[in-house]
Design brief:
Layout (H helix, E strand, L loop, with lengths): L7 H31 L5 H12 L1 H4 L1 H10 L2 H24 L5 H29 L5 H29 L2 H21 L19 H7 L2 H17 L2 H11 L4 H24 L5 H19 L4 H28 L6 H14 L1 H15 L1 H25 L3 E3 L7 E3 L5 E3 L8 E4 L4 E2 L1
Antiparallel strand pairs: 1-2, 3-4, 4-5
Helix pairs in contact: 1-6, 1-7, 1-8, 2-6, 2-16, 4-6, 4-15, 5-6, 5-8, 6-15, 7-8, 7-12, 7-14, 9-15, 10-13, 10-15, 10-16, 10-17, 11-12, 11-17, 12-14, 13-14, 13-17, 16-17
Length: 435
């Protein structure tokens, strides 16, 4: 489960990311609470609009950000983006402490944060495969998810308590300090131990990533599922904050809900780390589990019962996301991985501007429970898309000797379009190798 941690560079990266992610979740909790309770009068629509501004740039800049991640050294890209994000956190913290922060200024902060994060996210995702060899990539990606969800377990709870004790401005400044952990990790890595980048054949073009994904039916299906869930299902800040208010909780109660969600998310990520490879079927099962668990959570009458069901929501969400991320990375052409991951992150993060304002409006108009139902339906629809794809893709076979026994063939290769100057490439998602 933890084999990638034996690698020096990955171990440093893992620890730096863990500290930085804890601060990131603290800031996210503070930002959501500021918009919902300090800058508006419990207006979930404004909160959804803030999320839209923050997650819109990855969608708008997907071609450029993916090309940058493939064209330049990812370690240097991350040092620039992490420094910029740290400066933004300092600026927002000062504005909050001095009482100058307004809703329009918070919108500007969210949009600028999203701009730098649009370049940071694909480089950060693809950088994992620069740190570990291919045989450890799936494990390292899953451990990254575990780090992210460990931070999600700690950050919101600590952030909620700090909001009550010292105020939201200090939470932003504390997050700014945690960026130093990531910057130090990037600086002290052994550069000679990084995995050599795959050479690009011919002139690298922005459109190559789009063309590659368009001719991979399995990736198109994964992207479609992630779009549905990213747009309408994974709006947890809206769900948790509005449900906390419905149950009469303050900021610490909201932070606790986010941390409880992370308990299940961490379990799902660690289970994914134990698997030898990422399988498409787990993405489908995770989407279905998310839909069912979300429907149950929407019906819970008490704060404690709602919090308990969130563990299963987090488990299914993390299983789905960690597996999808690993599947996309380990089955993509290494020379195009940055552009493919930029598309993936654009779908994941860029779908939020579409869904978050809608979900926020539903929460404000019809209540938090109805907003959760919208997310649950999106999860069930994503599961149906995946199931239909597997059933119609020729991968499910019936055993002639056992009437009700079905098998799923995950070894059949997929032919994808050739890039300029290359021959046709066969991609076999079962083992993640290309020939």
């Amino acid at each position: 489960m933890f084999r990638s941690l034996t690698i020096h560079n990955y171990r440093i990266w893992f620890l730096g990311a863990l500290v930085s992610n804890v601060g990131g979740w603290m800031q996210t909790t503070a930002q959501d609470w500021v918009v919902l309770t300090q800058l508006t009068n419990n207006d979930a629509t404004a909160m959804g609009f803030t999320m839209a501004l923050q997650f819109g740039p990855p969608l708008l800049l997907v071609s450029v950000t993916g090309w940058v991640a493939d064209r330049f050294e990812r370690r240097k890209i991350l040092m620039v983006t992490q420094s910029a994000l740290m400066a933004l956190a300092v600026a927002a913290g000062i504005l909050l402490l001095t009482g100058v922060m307004t809703l329009p200024l918070m919108f500007c902060f969210a949009a600028t944060f999203g701009l730098f994060n649009a370049f940071d996210a694909p480089a950060r995702q693809a950088f994992v495969t620069d740190v570990v060899a291919h045989e450890n990539a799936a494990n390292a990606i899953a451990l990254n998810a575990a780090s992210f969800n460990s931070a999600r377990l700690i950050g919101p709870a600590v952030g909620g308590v700090l909001i009550v004790l010292v105020g939201t401005g200090w939470v932003f400044l504390i997050n700014a300090a945690t960026f130093l952990a990531m910057l130090v990790a990037l600086f002290v890595m052994h550069r000679d131990e990084l995995v050599p980048r795959a050479p690009s054949v011919g002139r690298a073009r922005l459109s190559d990533g789009f063309r590659y994904v368009a001719h991979r039916r399995d990736l198109v299906i994964v992207f479609a599922m992630m779009f549905l869930l990213g747009a309408f299902g994974m709006n947890f800040p809206i769900f948790a904050s509005t449900m906390a208010l419905e149950f009469g909780q303050e900021a610490d109660g909201y932070g606790l809900l986010s941390s409880i969600l992370a308990v299940g998310s961490l379990a799902g990520a660690l289970l994914a780390a134990r698997r030898d490879r990422a399988r498409l079927r787990l993405v489908v099962l995770g989407a279905g589990g998310f839909g069912v668990a979300s429907l149950i959570s929407a019906a819970m009458p008490l704060y404690g019962l709602y919090a308990a069901v969130l563990v299963f929501v987090g488990l299914s969400t993390s299983t789905m996301m960690a597996t999808a991320n690993g599947y996309v990375q380990t089955t993509s052409d290494p020379a195009l991985r940055g552009r493919v991951m930029a598309l993936y992150m654009a779908v994941m993060m860029g779908s939020t501007p579409i869904g978050a304002p809608i979900v926020g409006w539903v929460a404000s108009t019809y209540g938090a429970r109805m907003a959760i139902v919208v997310g649950a339906v999106a999860g069930l629809l994503a599961c149906a898309v995946g199931l239909i794809s597997m059933l119609t893709g020729g991968r499910v076979h019936r055993d002639p000797d056992r009437r009700f026994h079905l098998s799923l063939d995950e070894t059949r290769p997929l032919r994808v379009i050739a890039l300029p100057g290359e021959h046709d490439r066969i991609v076999a998602p079962a083992n993640g190798h290309a020939s």
